[in-house]
Amino acid sequence: MEAVKRVSQARKWFEIGNYLFLSLASLAVLLPFLNIVAGSFSGGNAILQGMVTLLPVNFTLENYWAIIKNVGFWKSFSITVYITVLGTALNLVFTSLMAYGLARKDLKGRSTILLIVLFTMIFTAPIIPSYLLVKSLGMLNTLWSLMVPSLISGFNLLIMISFFQNIPDGLTEAAKIDGSNEYRTFWSIVLPLSMPVMTTIGMFYAVGHWNGYFAAMMYLRDTGLFPLQVKLRQLVVQENAGDVLTSLSSAEGIKMATIIVATVPVMLIYPFIQKHFVKGAMIGSVKG
């Protein structure tokens, strides 16, 4: 009994410490974001004087009006939405097809292909060869350069392979007995059962496309093709934000408002897919 009590007491203190640590970690992430939200609604003088903490000072909407009235910002926003939607769709199609094939243990050369996938996860391609490859494919200065080179992620591929391996073999075998080929089995049987992992992987890909800026800086020269994150980077690194947007409000206020506008869409989508997201991550990472 004494041993059981000691274990129970130790577990209790562990849970208290765990909750305390997670709460502090959450605050460390949340407080800077709240400060940016408050700054985006604050006047320029209040921001420059360091008066803004977690609540707006000299409340104003000029920072957001400056963004709304800027045509270049919304063009970059639409480009980012286009890249995110089309790129994620292509990612899911190619990743799921490859994962379905590699989930079959009787596939010839399966071990070699998986070894190559693991190699790409450990050793990434250098910048210069990547640039030369994109150039040789004729994708330089096109939006395809932001989607095609990252069609399949090794990490996401392994998660999806693990998920497919958990689908009972009886379902696919029954479909084959009924005369279904591999493609029909995949689209009609496997894919409808894979919504949790598709949602999870889709979220990973979508966030990557939405936040991506390095590939755009490396492959794009036409400023009219710059996605939202490149515009945001220009705001952050340039001393005078008025050169990028407008001089209607403070430079710092416009920067903060732009960060909020670039972050909110992902935050709004996540609650609707959270259930599938958590389920897909768990099932795709633990093989039954």
TrEMBL record:
Family annotation (InterPro entries): MetI-like, MetI-like_sf
Record membrane topology: Multi-pass membrane protein
Keyword field contains Amino-acid biosynthesis: no
Cited Pfam families: BPD_transp_1
Domain named ABC transmembrane type-1: residues: 77-273
Superkingdom: Bacteria
Subcellular location, record wording: Cell membrane
Family: Belongs to the binding-protein-dependent transport system permease family.
Protein name (Swiss-Prot/TrEMBL): Carbohydrate ABC transporter permease
